């Protein structure tokens, strides 16, 4: 088995977990399968960098002296908003030589600035997806997945999703058993496929500005099994159904029906992950009414039925 070299790019203001998360996964895979990876870190001039949390990281080498890697990994962080031009110049010249190009979180901003994402489908931290799409219209930005693969290009959402992406790389390179062993050691999810939503319902819709609408949002969140029709919610807001629907959309950016769908899906998802309750019980408690209605919602949102979702996404249990 040929050893895969992995080069992690460092810069001032990098997010420490964007670096250490994938590093722990890849070095863990190396412990499981000796000779699988050789992981190196490098800054522009080889000097230590200060992360956004204040941690100082000493790289292995300078980017200008680094050999072309099999996998080039570019993390994100506050530094992606004030990077030196020499960094994107280096990426523009050297990144195409790598067999696999990976970004974590807002590392995608650096790749886009170097012109490496044009024509590709990518993702990044949900808070920066709109900015990335606006500044780089030739890039197809998908704000929903926790990671996206487009050929040899892999991009991930924010922070901990870099661990999910790294586990997917290990599974592709070394197989499921190796990825499972690393996940168990790190006590993280066995597997969160890239099409799992990267954030909960709260960031998916704005908090309403007007007090009656905010109260309705809270009511929906706290009572997913209640009558959440537009007519019922409008009564709670002391508005006509038509006025309520328009005001809710204007304040939150989504319709009442869509918000209800998101809340119910979030409640059901969390109960599948956190409890041993049956699908029928969860479907009643979260407002779906029947297991079939809940199954349709999960297939539409996640591409899988509730039982399979639970099997895949509950945390792995470390060996005793």
Observed structural traits:
320 residues, alpha/beta, Arc Repressor Mutant, subunit A, two-stranded antiparallel ribbon, 11 strands, disordered C terminus, INH-QAR
Biggest sheet statistics? 7 strands, mixed
Number of strands: 11
Compute the gyration radius: what is it? 22 Å
How many helices?
14
CATH top level of the largest domain?
Answer: Alpha Beta
Measure the end-to-end span: 30 Å
Strand arrangement, largest sheet? Answer: 5-2-1-6-7-11-10
- The arrangement of helices and strands along the chain is EHEEEEEHEHEHEEEHHHHHHHHHH
How many individual domains? 2
Broad shape: globular
Estimated structural class: alpha/beta
Oligomer: single chain
Residue share in helix: 40-55%
Q: Give the name of the CATH architecture of the largest domain.
A: 3-Layer(aba) Sandwich
Spans where pLDDT lies below 50 across 5 or more residues: 199-203, 315-320
User: How much strand content do the residues show?
Assistant: 5-15%
CATH topology of the largest domain: Rossmann fold
Write down the overall mean pLDDT. Answer: 90
Domain HTH araC/xylS-type: 214-312
Protein name: GlxA family transcriptional regulator
Keywords: Transcription, Transcription regulation
Organism: Streptomyces vulcanius
In words, what does this structure look like?
It contains 14 helices and eleven strands. The chain has two domains: 4-186, Rossmann fold, CATH 3.40.50; 201-313, Arc Repressor Mutant, subunit A (Orthogonal Bundle). Mean pLDDT is 90; it is low at 199-203 and 315-320. By secondary structure, it is α/β, with parallel strands linked by helices.
